Amino acid sequence: xxxxxxxxxxxxxxxxxxxxxxxxxxxxxxxxxxxxxxxxxxxxxxxxxxxxxxxxxxxxxxxxxxxxxxxxxxxxxxxxxxxxxxxxxxxxxxxxxxxxxxxxxxxxxxxxxxxxxxxxxxxxxxxxxxxxxxxxxxxxxxxxxxxxxxxxxxxxxxxxxxxxxxxxxxxxxxxxxxxxxxxxxxxxxxxxxxxxxxxxxxxxxxxxxxxxxxxxxxxxxxxxxxxxxxxxxxxxxxxxxxxxxxxxxxxxxxxxxxxxxxxxxxxxxxxxxxxxxxxxxxxxxxxxxxxxxxxxxxxxxxxxxxxxxxxxxxxxxxxxxxxxxxxxxxxxxxxxxxxxxxxxxxxxxxxxxxxxxxxxxxxxxxxxxxxxxxxxxxxxxxxxxxxxxxxxxxxxxxxxxxxxxxxxxxxxxxxxxxxxxxxxxxxxxxxxxxxxxxxxxxxxxxxxxxxxxxxxxxxxxxxxxxxxxxxxxxxxxxxxxxxxxxxxxxxxxxxxxxxxxxxxxxxxxxxxxxxxxxxxxxxxxxxxxxxxxxxxxxxxxxxxxxxxxxxxxxxxxxxxxxxxxxxxxxxxxxxxxxxxxxxxxxxxxxxxxxxxxxxxxxxxxxxxxxxxxxxxxxxxxxxxxxxxxxxxxxxxxxxxxxxxxxxxxxxxxxxxxxxxxxxxxxxxxxxxxxxxxxxxxxxxxxxxxxxxxxxxxxxxxxxx
Length: 704
Fold this sequence. Notes:
By secondary structure, the chain is α/β, with parallel strands linked by helices. The chain starts with 12 loop residues before the first helix and ends with a helix.
């Protein structure tokens, strides 16, 4: 399944170098499909990803075992990615008659193309002419007689291409002498039962629950969840489902996309055995390491429900309804259990990360009951093989780690040669793992990028119809000793997120319904400790959650007040309260002056609408005289929890200006009154004197 170095045609070295320079050709080794490249006969340059090359691979049925004395059917694939025609050549199919002895020898052969022992040619076939940028396949059938008397085992197979060439600049030709490798597994029919566990998860962009748009994309034709459901349908795979997926669909009620509700119905109708992962695929191991007295609970999702999304069931309408019946039918909202339950799921199964200890298994018993069965890879135990194990009375189902890793790599493949390589490797490892009292367990890694066609191919090859969870859990157990895997300590990260969650719990008292903030926060914490996250992804998830907590705690606060000058003895002081949350918040605004010259209302209740700033007018009153006073404002929740940072307003008092102004005004008015009175008196006196002088003259005239 691997291409090797192309070997150039024989010609003088100088001419060859000139041809290389003229054509600007770089040729070299390409690892393709699963086995390593063999050495080229001539020294060549290293390839770059853009080099035009010929791909060469061989498949013996993706490692599917054949019975002893059965024929060998091999598929040879040639892909000509060069710019010229690949001429006809020949391919020789060879087998090493010494079986590979163990897993290490298997990996060395498939990954490096090296093994001890000699090879025998089984068949030689001509290859067709292949046009540029096209692919062709050919089938080579070898009769059991040609194979000889081979015992059960895993045998190295290789195909060697020779005689094929492509044209290069200058009229020269480039020979492609390539080698591809695979294995042949010979086993008794029906003797290798195995179960395949398939986890199905989906991560929302916001880290909480999948949105309607995300569900629509995931469950539509071509979506990741739709593809996984199609891949497992008709197989006997055991499904491990994150209950956050059905919860995200059910919580939307009538707003859920039709494709999502149909996907959930089809999932629940599958005959496959199903069990639930922890909500958000949270890891129980890190919780045990952190010493939590109980596992982190699934958050209450009911406060996130919208009544409009759950209309009441249609009732029969009476032709003559009672005129006094005015009560409206009310919607019945699902409870938390109805939102998160997986119908028909097996109980008592836990699938955490692999770095467990004996003490952790005991803690799992405290968390989930003593009858809990923990699913772990064989690397979690010293010298353990796949099957059922007990550790101090605690049950575990052990998956073959190496075969599972190969199968997990296979289901990610979109290249048929890569898929064949990994399936072949998984089949070889499964052969070495088989033979115990319990069927072999294969467990796929958590992934949201699997190829549906590759998943179906893997399940068709490895999911045995007869294997059930009950059979696995009832098999005779073997004793085992856990060995903790090397990984970063995740406890500090979990503790940091829980500390932030405590602060957010206090902060959320400003909300009418605190669960609107706290439930998504808990879900994000659970996802941040997800089993499928590697160390780098875990570190990033913790950092993102801490940043989100800081942003949320800073979402409500007081905008810095501007300096204020007070020219009267009493006036309102404006304060702006910022609310960046998507919900109304209830706050108490506390004001404290730095000087007794200013009286201020000590507490003002505030309801701030979402995504904006709210003006709050605080009554203040100057007591005595002028001066500069600082007023400190603080926000608290209705329960007294400090919210945001305090802010200080500078207030300049001119409280005596009003009295002085009134005094001056009163004096002016009094002066004007006095002046007016004096003027009036003088005017009347003048008029009186003028009258007295005129009266004697009148008398004299009368006497004459």
